[in-house]
Structure formats: structure tokens, C-alpha cells
Write a structure and sequence with these properties.
CATH class of the largest domain in chain A: Mainly Alpha
Protein name (chains A, B): TetR family transcriptional regulator
Keywords (chains A, B): DNA-binding, Transcription, Transcription regulation
Helix content of chain A: over 70%
Order of helices and strands of chain A: HHHHHHHHHHH
CATH superfamily of the largest domain in chain A: Tetracycline Repressor, domain 2
GO molecular function, one term (chains A, B): transcription cis-regulatory region binding
Number of helices of chain A: 11
Oligomer: homodimer
Organism (chains A, B): Pleomorphomonas carboxyditropha
Structural class of chain A: mainly alpha
Low-confidence stretches of chain A: none
Largest sheet of chain A: none
Number of domains of chain A: 2
Shape of chain A: elongated
DNA sequence: CCGGAACCGTACCGTACGGTACATAGATTT
DNA sequence: AAATCTATGTACCGTACGGTACGGTTCCGG
């Protein structure tokens, strides 16, 4: 939708860097102009507004992350399980990333102003792609008879909860990501194992 | 140390109200002084600092919430299940409360400054009591033979994930609590049902 | 009745930041 | 070569807010 120019991308990258380093308070228009060797006037010309800049940062960051669609070949149950584990580790990796945390903090800190525009943006560009990818994966598993569920969304939310627990909020509150996302593979394996016990073939559907 | 005087409590209550209504930006010292009919000088005398005020707000709010210890009588499995469901609904209720959301947003918004003091405070006074209560409940269930697990913390985190999913972050990002905590009892029942399938008696422990 | 402590209301100060204006320098077009 | 467009850097403005100072008032103990 808004492919920025390379120059603008560089400025946005710089802005993300500032945000990660010092939080929102460190991201001032003057500071960004100085750090990125551009003028404040250009900032306002390009992004219109400080809020516009923040929004642009989110869409820019989202444009960097690509969510690989599931490879269609999914022959064995073992492959499918591995795919789920990869998803789980990816999810934990993304959520514990510095930039992700900084942007989420930013959006949450502004969730009261103007209808939570940034929050909506973050949900749409950040969470939705992940959600769609996971749901596609789940339904693929169901098609192959590895999973059994009637409500895809419910299954997805359960999977998310089993993987993340309350780790995301704890990290957002300042807990060290290392402490939360520690031993990511183990945690991913456990979550997937639990998920299979709830939704795997052979488990009766919940009602 | 922090039993505040009634007058100070009233001021803190007023501050919470301002925070809920308009977010952090609406919570200015001058505005609070005006709304609470007190002087800025008193604010600084009592709380030392704006950050001190924010910290006081958190401890004050925490002091209002009491977590009932589990009643020791827990004869039947049905009673225990009901207790778990009550915990689940309580948890969803607390997390979707206006004041809780506002304070979490506040702490997250400041999670970059001075070692995330507010975040630590929130974890200690807000989440820890809930965690302890839940763990006590879980271990009570294990003592009665209703549950089977080796790692209490792991079981607790799983329970938390099954109940909350990513609803907390979504609400923090501005999604309507009604949309997330909608149909709380159904969601609580589902989560407890799933939890029993993972950790209930008759389920082999995970390893 | 007196003196002091606590507190209110207001005024004030310094500063930081969002946003605008302008003067200058390269680059691109005509 | 002249003109135009774009971008930089600096200077500037208005405002909002954290923090402090001060005069006036109420309340309480002696």
C-alpha cells in the first residue's frame, strides 16, 4: 500500500533503532532528524505527522517480516508436527524480538488516543498474518487427518495460549526476554505435545 | 510504609479515575490537583515525584484487590472443578477491568525507563498474588488426587494460557474488552475442560 | 489565645517538544 | 545555462508540563 522510497526506509529504520534504544521518549522529531541526517521538514512532508511517522514505522516493520505460506507437501505426521514446532518457535522468536516489543509498547502506550489507531494497525499487519498462516497450517493438518477440530479459531487461540502463556505481557512489562523465551525449543515442543493431546486425531472433540 | 492516609487514598482514587478516562496524557500533576482539590505541593510532598505517584497508584489499587485463599474444604471433584472455573472467570474479569488495563498500559508504556520499576511493581503486586492463589489451588487439587503434574509452575502457566490466550494483549492494544472477554463463563469452562484433559487424573504426565 | 503544622490555590520558571518558516545546496529538467 | 524540484540544517514559535515558591487559610495542641 505504501511502499516507501529507499531513503524513507532508511529513515524509518533509524527511527526503529531509536525507539528500541530509548523507548518512545527517545523518539523525537528533532532527534530522528539528527540521527538520520534528514530535516524535520522532510519528516513532516513524508509522514505528515508524528502519528503518521509511528504508523509508518509499524507498516514498514511489518513489510520486513514475511510469513512463509506452508509448503503444500506435508506427507508425514512427523513433518506436520515439525511444522507446528517451527511455527511455535517462530512465534516466540518474533514476540521476544526487540523491535516487536518496542512497537507493541508504543501502540499500547497510545491505545487510549484516537481510537487506538496504532493498536489496530499492529493487529492487522503484525498479528493477522501470523494468525492466518497458523490457521492455514491447522486446516492443512485437519485435511490430512492429523488434527480434529470443528472451530478453527478456537483451535488457533488454544495453540497460541499453549505456546505463549503470559510471556508476552511479562516481556512487555520489562521482564528480560531471555528469562521468558528461554529454552524456546523445549517450550515449543511441550506446547505442541499438549496441543496434540487436545486436538490430535484420536482425541474426541470438545463440547 | 504504604498505608496511605484516607485523604491520600482519595487522591489516588481520583488519579486512577483520570488515568482510566484519558490515559497517561490526561494524568498531569496540575490536572490531578484540580480534580482532587488538592495542591500540587501536597502531591510532591506525599509522593515525592510523578513516578512516585504512579507507583503509589499501583500499590493502592493492589491493596484494594484481595485474593481469597481457597477454602480448605474441597470434598468433591465437582467442587474443585467449580473452584477452577471461578478462578478462570475471576482472572478474565480482572484482566478486562478498566483500571487493570489502564495500569498495565501505563507500566508497559514506561517499561523502558529506570529498569522498568513500574512493571516490576505490577508483577509483584498484581500478578504474583493471583499466581500464588492459583498454584495453591492446583496443589490442593493434586493432594486430593484430582490433578497430576510434577511441575507446579508449568501447570500454572498452561492453565493461564488456556484461559487467557492472547486476549490480554489484544485488550491492551485497544480491542474492546467486551469482544475479548465475551462469554466469559463459556470460555472458562472450555479452558478448565482442556486443562483437565492435560493434567487431570487419568492423563499421563507429560515428558 | 497563640504558634505551628499541614494544606490549598495560584502564580511562576525552565525546558522539551511538535510543528512551521526560511535560506541554502544539489540534482533534474527544459 | 536557467529554472524547478527536492532536501538539508537551522532558527523560531507556541504550548504543555514537571517542579518550585509563596501567600493565605484551616486546624490542632498547649
Amino acid at each position: 500500500m505504501e511502499p516507501f522510497t529507499p531513503r524513507q526506509n532508511a529513515v524509518l529504520e533509524c527511527a526503529l533503532q531509536l525507539l528500541v534504544a530509548g523507548g518512545e521518549r527517545a523518539l523525537t522529531t528533532a532527534g530522528l532528524a539528527r540521527a538520520a541526517n534528514c530535516s524535520k521538514e522532510s519528516l513532516y512532508k513524508w509522514f505528515g505527522d508524528r502519528d503518521g511517522l509511528l504508523a509508518a514505522m509499524i507498516t514498514y516493520q511489518a513489510s520486513k517480516v514475511r510469513t512463509p505460506g506452508p509448503r503444500e507437501s506435508m506427507p508425514t505426521l512427523d513433518d506436520f508436527t515439525r511444522s507446528l514446532a517451527v511455527f511455535a518457535e517462530d512465534l516466540l522468536g518474533v514476540l521476544s524480538g526487540e523491535v516487536s516489543l518496542a512497537l507493541n509498547r508504543l501502540a499500547i502506550g497510545q491505545a487510549d488516543r484516537d481510537g487506538a489507531e496504532l493498536g489496530a494497525l499492529l493487529r492487522e499487519h503484525g498479528r493477522l498474518p501470523i494468525e492466518l498462516r497458523a490457521k492455514a497450517l491447522l486446516e492443512l493438518g485437519r485435511r490430512h487427518g492429523y488434527l480434529k477440530f470443528s472451530d478453527t479459531h478456537e483451535a488457533y487461540e488454544t495453540l497460541y495460549g499453549l505456546i505463549v502463556h503470559d510471556g508476552h505481557v511479562r516481556m512487555l512489562l520489562g521482564e528480560a526476554p531471555a528469562k521468558v523465551a528461554d529454552d524456546r525449543p523445549r517450550r515449543a515442543r511441550l506446547a505442541i505435545s499438549q496441543f496434540f493431546r487436545l486436538y490430535g486425531q484420536g482425541a474426541q472433540d470438545i463440547r
